[in-house]
Design goal:
The protein is α/β, with parallel strands linked by helices. It is about 40% helix and about 20% strand. The longest helix has 15 residues, at about 55-70.
C-alpha cells in the first residue's frame, strides 16, 4: 500500500493479502467490507472500474482498518455496525455482536406475536432481538410493546441508540435479571450467556478477547442463567404467555427440562439453518 496513487483494485488486493497473512478466515470478504465501508463503493461499481483512483485520506483510513482487523479486532468494532434481520444495528465492545443464529429466535417469536402483546427481552444487549421483533410486528400492522433489560449500563446505551435509529419505542430497564422488573408479560425472550466457562478460552480471538465476558460466561455447565431466568419468569409471565430462549447447540434437552420443571407446557426445540438446536420455547398456562 505504499506510493502516492491508490486504486480500488490495489487496495483490495493488498488488504486481502494482509488479512490472509494474519490468518483471518474470511480475509477476502473482510477486505471487501472494509473497502466498501471507507470508499462507499458498491461491488458493481468496483467491477465496472477497478482501477478507479481512491483519495489518499480514504486509502489511508482503509489501510489502518486493515491493520486493525489483522490484530483480530472484530470487523464490526471497526465499522461500528452489524446487520441483523436485514436491519442495521450499532455495536461496540460493550455488547455481543448479533449473529445470524439468533435470527431463529426472532423468527420463532414473530410466529407467536398477537396484537397488544407486552414483550420482555431479558439480557437485551444491543437490543437487536427486541427491536427486530417490534419492527417486524409493526410492518405486519401488529401493535405490541417491548421492554429490554440488561445489567450493563453501557449495553443499554447501545440498545437505546438502536431503538432511536429504528424508532421502535422500546422501554429499557437496568438490573440484574428480574430485580427491577415489576410488570408481567405475554412473551419473554432471552439470549443469555450460555458458554461454559472452560470453553471460552477455545473460542476465536475475536470473541473471547473482544465480546464482553459478561455476555458469554454461562458458568460451569452453561445453564446458570437459564435456571435463574426460568425460575423467576413464572412471577412475570401471564397465563398463556411464551418463554423463548436461544441456546447452545447441545443445550436444548437440558433447557427443556428446566421449563418443564417450572410448569411450562407445549415445549419445543427449534433448529437453526445449520440444523442445530437453537431455540427452546414453552407456554405457561398456570394462573
Amino acid at each position: 500500500m505504499n506510493g502516492t496513487i491508490f486504486t480500488l483494485r490495489n487496495l483490495y488486493r493488498d488488504g486481502t493479502i494482509c488479512l490472509e497473512k494474519a490468518g483471518i478466515a474470511d480475509a477476502k470478504l473482510d477486505a471487501w467490507y472494509l473497502l466498501e465501508y471507507e470508499t462507499k463503493i458498491s461491488r458493481a461499481m468496483f467491477l465496472a472500474d477497478p482501477d478507479k483512483e481512491v483519495e489518499k485520506d480514504k486509502a489511508e483510513h482503509y489501510r489502518k482498518d486493515i491493520e486493525t482487523r489483522a490484530q483480530r479486532i472484530p470487523l464490526q468494532h471497526i465499522t461500528g455496525e452489524q446487520e441483523f434481520m436485514g436491519l442495521d444495528f450499532k455495536v461496540n465492545e460493550h455488547v455481543l455482536i448479533p449473529r445470524q443464529d439468533t435470527e431463529t429466535l426472532v423468527e420463532e417469536a414473530l410466529k407467536k406475536i398477537r396484537p397488544g402483546m407486552q414483550i420482555l427481552d431479558m439480557c437485551t444487549g444491543s437490543g437487536c432481538i427486541l427491536e427486530s421483533i417490534l419492527k417486524f410486528a409493526e410492518r405486519k400492522g401488529i401493535c405490541v410493546s417491548g421492554t429490554g433489560c440488561d445489567i450493563s449500563e453501557e449495553a443499554l446505551k447501545v440498545a437505546k441508540e438502536n431503538d432511536s435509529r429504528l424508532q421502535t419505542r422500546a422501554v429499557f430497564i437496568q438490573g440484574d435479571l428480574f430485580e427491577n422488573i415489576a410488570e408481567t408479560y405475554d412473551m419473554i425472550v432471552s439470549n443469555p450467556p450460555y458458554i461454559r466457562t472452560e470453553e471460552i478460552s477455545s473460542l476465536e480471538d475475536e470473541v473471547k478477547l473482544h465480546d464482553p465476558w459478561i455476555a458469554l460466561d454461562g458458568k460451569t455447565d452453561g445453564l446458570y442463567f437459564y435456571r435463574l431466568i426460568v425460575k423467576e419468569s413464572v412471577k412475570h409471565i401471564k397465563k398463556g404467555g411464551y418463554l423463548l430462549f436461544e441456546t447452545g447447540f447441545d443445550q436444548g434437552k437440558d433447557v427443556s427440562v428446566l421449563l418443564e420443571e417450572q410448569g411450562y407446557e407445549e415445549i419445543q426445540v427449534k433448529k437453526d439453518l445449520a440444523g442445530l438446536d437453537r431455540v427452546v420455547m414453552g407456554r405457561y398456562n398456570k394462573e
